[in-house]
Specification:
This is Subtilisin-like protein. It comes from Russula earlei. The longest helix is centred in the last third of the chain and has 20 residues. Strand 6 and strand 7 form a beta hairpin. The N and C termini lie far apart (85 Å). Strands 11, 12, 13, 14, 16, 18, 19 and 22 form an eight-stranded mixed beta sheet that branches. The chain has a four-stranded antiparallel beta sheet with strand order 4-5-3-9. A three-stranded antiparallel beta sheet has the order 2-6-7, with no helix packed on it. Helix 2 runs parallel beside helix 12, helix 10 packs parallel to helix 14 and helix 14 packs parallel to helix 16. The protein is globular. The protein is an alpha/beta fold. The protein folds into two domains: 125 residues, no CATH class; 412 residues, Rossmann fold (3-Layer(aba) Sandwich), CATH 3.40.50. It is built from 16 helices and 26 strands.
Length: 639
Amino acid sequence: MLVSFLQLLAISSLVAAAPSRRANHVVHERRSVEPRNWMKSRRVDPYKVLPLRIGLAQQNLEQLEELLMAISSPDSPSFGQHWSPERVADHFAPSENTISTVTEWLTTEGFRGDRIRVSPSKGWIDVNATVSEIEALLSAEYHVFTHPSGHEQISCESYSLPDHIREHVELIKPTVHFKHRIPDAPALQKRIPDALALQKRGNSTKLGAPSKFNGPKTNGTIVPASNPFPITTCDQFIVPDCLRELYEIDYKPKASEKNTFGIVEFTQQAYLGSDLDIFFSLFSHDQEHKRPELVSIDGGVVQTFNQGFEFNGESDLDLEYAMTLVNPLEIKLLQTGDLIEGAGFDNWLDAVDKSFCTFDGGDVPGEDGIYPDPAPGGFNHPESCGIIKPPHVVSISYGQDEDEVPVAYAKRQCHEYGKLGMMGSSVLYASGDNGVAGFGGFCPGGVQFNPDFPASCPFVTAVGATQMVPGSTVQDPEVACETVIISGGGFSNIFPMPEYQEHAVKKYLHDNPPPYTAAQYSNSGKVRAFPDLSANGANYVTAIDGNLFLVFGTSASAPVVASMIALINDARLSHDKGPIGFLNPLIYKDKFADLFNDITSGSNPGCGTNGFPAAKGWDPVTGVGTPNFTKLLKAWANL
């Protein structure tokens, strides 16, 4: 009996011990920054079953930038020859060799064939496994992390793979991915129906929840609806006519039946129809009672039981201005995530590209909504894969700190934006509202600049914010926005510099050498810099919850620029041309420099510094400047 007891003790000790990395294993992913305010509390139960999902390496990704540039560069003979979704999926799908190599590895490690499933897109392999099996497979160690609030989550600090397997795997989850934010209790004390209480609690850590979402800001000013809003007061009150004057927007859509313009919102962010009508009654009379076309992604709903600036501000702002500027083109509202799970960026990407989907709802736990959602009232259906063609233009006013994003996850998502560009879609992201700092002014280590993602991805168009100088007119130059919000911009810690911006960025760094060290920002001169361009982001008169608020943010800038691109696409489509697609190669072309109003004043302070100064030409505050729509229309519609 004593021998048996000692044997059991030895076995249990082996189970609890940290697995050592095997001789042929190499670290594949490591969490670069430890989670804020979370404490490693204990090992995970070795018998707990986790849904292990292996993201297979896609083939031909090394060609992505070159292929995208050929389609998007105006001097290329292939300009505008966008690929079909099927062609994109086939070209980049993992090879049969990759699928068989990873499958054989799993089989060799003791996983029976009936436990291994390959997704229909061939992009993922799914295995349900115990923690002890996963730890042995990946030479990893899983812990429970605890937050002072009592919330817990599972993560490992790193994981390793056999050297011959690494080239076939992009990422594995759940591993180093970590949900950083927890519910903000004061923001969630809203009255909701009892049947929805669980849903409200469950959604509190997703992008669309007040605790997670860093949306537009207000200085609290409520403007009387009786205000006439003449052009002479645009320095105090931005309304649609101000934007038309600032950027010379004078075009009426002619090909709306061919054109598509999508705006992404994450539940619980939602518009109120009554707010749209207040705005339209003042600035676009013929649109009263009109609504965007709802595209429900993973159970996305336009909820109305939670109301307030923190729930309705973003959607009201985006839709009121975009719908007015592109009237009569109908906006597609890509409402993403149900009331329980909410959603992340991968969820809306699933909906516009079926090949990006995993299966059985397998995005990144903690970052994305996981569907089907069996919880009461949840979206208990397969995730929304390929339910809508990618719109010609998509505007997204959401983001997260780059330091919170696992590198492999960020790269896989960024590649998807490149694929959308190859399909002819222009994807615009707001660049953030905290200067060189992250949300809430957070700077890793107290000094490191914290770029915004996905704005830092080289395959999206990042939009910064400008403002009018108090006392100026719409004919006077704007400056970088530093009122209430600060235009986000800087240099990525993840992505290399794309070829299209090398000349502009290197010139800025030569003419305006930043006085900061490598401990503060990526100063190699070889990384992705953003934003790409900008638009006004201050003093927007916006109807929210029955009042007219002054609203500030790159959240306003992004849909305004997207609206201008939608109008240019209309002009092209009306002459039987295709949409512009990926914008950045056009933005940085020297021959198009005079299509933008250069912004040379202001900066984006943060992390105890003055940030970067705006300067002649491109700068990491306002990009190449603000669009002159009349010039853009003439140049880009004729390409």
